[in-house]
Amino acid sequence: MISVGVNPAYQVPELEYALNKVGVKALVMAESFRTRNYYNVLEELIPELSGSVPGKLKSSRVPSLKTVVIDCEERSYPGTFSMHDLLELPTEQQIRNIESMQTRICPDSGACMLLTSGTTGQPKVALLSHFGLVNNATQAARRNELDSKDHRVCVHVPLFHAFGLVF
């Protein structure tokens, strides 16, 4: 599994492009931010969502997407799993299978994809490796002497992009 950071400010056309560009199979998202309900945005893009069985979505506009998970506590949304549902799903055997797959991940394997800002055209996809992420974080910590004493770091940057993901 390779994670993909998606800008939460994307409008429907941008979201459609991004999800199709990376061939997303599952989308894990927050319920809302401020006044924006992300389920409503997704339902505008994928009208089939509300009538689908969770985990078996068939969308004409984003055909690779099968599963939507929403981090919500107060209510449930049609066609989706809640984060709580997701955590209750795996059997002990499925958990062991996942753990055994982890041993086959090598440092140069893809860890996540980032979408560029799209200032010169449509956003492009950059694949970051496990080694690259760990190395970048390690070097940033050393350069800023975060390994020499206790620190509190407050960094207000987008978590869906490179700096927020690594630092």
UniProtKB/TrEMBL annotation:
AMP-dependent synthetase/ligase domain residues: 1-165
BP GO terms, sorted: fatty acid metabolic process
One GO molecular-function entry: medium-chain fatty acid-CoA ligase activity
InterPro entries assigned to the protein according to its UniProt record, in alphabetical order: AMP-binding_CS (IPR020845), AMP-dep_synth/lig_dom (IPR000873)
Keyword Ligase: yes
Enzyme Commission number(s) of this protein: 6.2.1.2
Catalytic reactions on record: octanoate + ATP + CoA = octanoyl-CoA + AMP + diphosphate; a medium-chain fatty acid + ATP + CoA = a medium-chain fatty acyl-CoA + AMP + diphosphate
Top-level taxon: Eukaryota
Keyword entries, A-Z: Ligase
Enzyme class, first EC level, given as a word: ligase
Gene3D superfamilies: 3.40.50.980
Annotated function: Acyl-CoA synthases catalyze the initial reaction in fatty acid metabolism, by forming a thioester with CoA. Has some preference toward medium-chain substrates. Plays a role in adipocyte differentiation.
Protein family per UniProt: Belongs to the ATP-dependent AMP-binding enzyme family.
Protein name: Medium-chain acyl-CoA ligase ACSF2, mitochondrial
Organism: Culex pipiens (House mosquito)
